[in-house]
Amino acid sequence: MDVALVHWPAESERLEHLRTRREPRLVIVEQWPPPPMLDDLEDWLRAPPDDDELRIRLATLRARADSQNVAIAIEDGVLRVRGHVVVLPPIQARLAGALLERRNAVVSRETLLRRGWVDGAPKDRNVLDVHVARLRRLLAPTGLRIHTVHRRGYLLRTDDPEPSLA
């Protein structure tokens, strides 16, 4: 997982954007005091950073981010997102699996149709929309959100800062 380097205070808006998206970030503090750290996906160093310490901090942030990704898993139709457990019907489980494999990236409708229906895609293309709507309702308590990307497919993200996605 990549860790963003952010210069403080020059890139304060970018820092807020990365925080909102729960992306790991290392803040290079060019003006004292540093911003308050809001979670364990953030750390800071004074400018100019020492090369060895920079490498260590980046490795630590990568490890933290990677360990949090384990918090989301789907196995045998059971989705676990931190403290939440959601039992998914077979089609929704296959759709969720495809979306989780490509989290934060668009998954095409064609890919979802192939993955959701192993015996061949349904003739009515609205069937996919119905199953995605059901999946959205099932995922709502977990903080995972499925967004429609017009004419392309669907995107799985987290809007709730609790579950962590890469």
Keywords:
166 residues, alpha/beta, Arc Repressor Mutant, subunit A, 2 domains, 3-stranded parallel beta sheet, 9 strands
Percent in strands: 25-35%
Unreliable spans are 160-166
Structural class: alpha/beta
The gyration radius over C-alpha positions equals 19 Å
Strand order of the largest sheet: 1-2-3
Tell me how many strands there are: 9
| Number of structurally distinct domains | 2
User: What spatial form do the alpha-carbon principal axes imply?
Assistant: elongated
Total helical elements? 5
Write down the overall mean pLDDT: 87
User: What distance separates the N and C termini?
Assistant: 7 Å
CATH architecture of the largest domain: Orthogonal Bundle
Provide an overview of this structure.
With 166 residues, the protein is of the alpha/beta class. Helices cover 37% and strands 25% of the residues. The protein has five helices and nine strands, in the order βαββαβββαβααββ. Strands 1-2-3 form a three-stranded parallel β-sheet, with helices on both faces. Strands 4-5-6 form a three-stranded antiparallel β-sheet, covered by helices on one side. β4 (72-75) and β5 form a beta hairpin. The chain is elongated and about 60 Å long. The termini are close together.
Structural topology:
Layout: E1 4-8, H1 12-20, E2 25-29, E3 42-46, H2 51-69, E4 72-75, E5 78-81, E6 84-87, H3 90-101, E7 106-108, H4 109-116, H5 126-139, E8 144-149, E9 153-158
Parallel strand pairs: 1-2, 2-3
Antiparallel strand pairs: 4-5, 5-6, 7-9, 8-9
